[in-house]
Amino acid sequence: MSAHWRNFLAGVFLAGFLFFLGLFVAVKPRILVLGSSAEDTLWSQKFKQGAGAVLERNRRPLSVEWCYLDVPDRASGASAVAAAEARRTVERIRPDVLIAVDDPANAFIAREYPGLALPRIIYVSINELPGHYGYNGRENVSGIADRLPLDALRDLAGDLQPRASRRIAALGLRNEAVMAELEQVRAFDWSPHRLVASDAVRTFEEWRRFVRESGADLLIVLDAGHMPRSVDDAGTVSGGDVVRWTEANSKALPVGTGVGFVPAGGSLSFAPPPDDYGEKAMELAIDWLDDRESPGAPPPVESSSFEVAIRQGLLRARGLTVPPIYTEAARENGTLYP
């Protein structure tokens, strides 16, 4: 065979290889994970770890991309710019499945697609009911609802002093997520304990007043993010400083509901687990892309899991202990601090 023919056949082989490679990439299912928080937040990192564990076990060819709005809530001034950029990402990738994490990702982006053939939408960790985003009855929508571990918090109140009715309060920085969480708290049956106070405040001055005046035995801290010092002082107090002040000054035991509460200086938290949410969301996505035994979207799920974080020294300083099952859960999770 002449060199000319060898070069020709090599070119044909290379062209065919590139064609089929491009075809393979084009038809490979695409998953886009759209997070509301910044990529470097603890919640985002642990969510990605959970999703990554599922992807490591997966043998089906997939294309998975990640996009982060870096928008703490829907009222953020940067929301319009972030939403426009994320929308362009959706249009560029044209995902088969869009995993929208937290309320801003659903409010700004995912709610535009219910009822369409693509993308299929998986909502994760939304405080609003799915119907708020137009998801009810839509064949291209499934998801995981965000529910606070209120049963565990009620049990904890009894564990702190058995056979006694405890007074419970709930506090958070005013935003849409906290307002939705307060609705869960207020609608929950706390008996034999009592919910004696609940509020969403705007400033650190209001926060301190609530902590000092709540009259509670157990203080549920829903969100302790950055906040203005007062209506007259434009300076801000960091979320970590809020947590540490609360821990040092609250007569009631503060229990956080976010994964960052104990790392910031809190003593105890019962938080919806972002790694479990990541696993469940990616499992739903892959299940949806596979040939399902029943047609349509996989049914929505509600996570009943929570992760425990404990800072033992702070609990000892209060003369408190928690049941060993919580300590062991925190140890297993890597969230047991000295």
SSE layout and pairing:
Layout: H1 3-27, E1 30-35, H2 42-57, E2 63-68, H3 79-93, E3 97-101, H4 102-108, E4 120-126, E5 141-145, H5 150-160, E6 167-173, H6 176-187, E7 194-201, H7 204-213, E8 218-223, E9 227-230, E10 233-237, H8 239-249, E11 253-256, E12 268-271, H9 274-289, E13 301-302, E14 307-311, H10 312-317, H11 324-333, E15 336-337
Parallel strand pairs: 1-2, 1-3, 3-4, 4-5, 5-13, 6-7, 6-8, 8-11, 14-15
Antiparallel strand pairs: 9-10, 12-14
Helix pairs in contact: 2-9
Give an overview in words:
It is a single chain. By secondary structure, the chain is an alpha/beta fold. The chain has eleven helices and 15 strands. The chain has helices at 3-27, 42-57, 79-93, 102-108, 150-160, 176-187, 204-213, 239-249, 274-289, 312-317, 324-333; strands at residues 30-35, 63-68, 97-101, 120-126, 141-145, 167-173, 194-201, 218-223, 227-230, 233-237, 253-256, 268-271, 301-302, 307-311, 336-337. The longest helix is centred in the first third of the chain and has 25 residues, at 3-27.
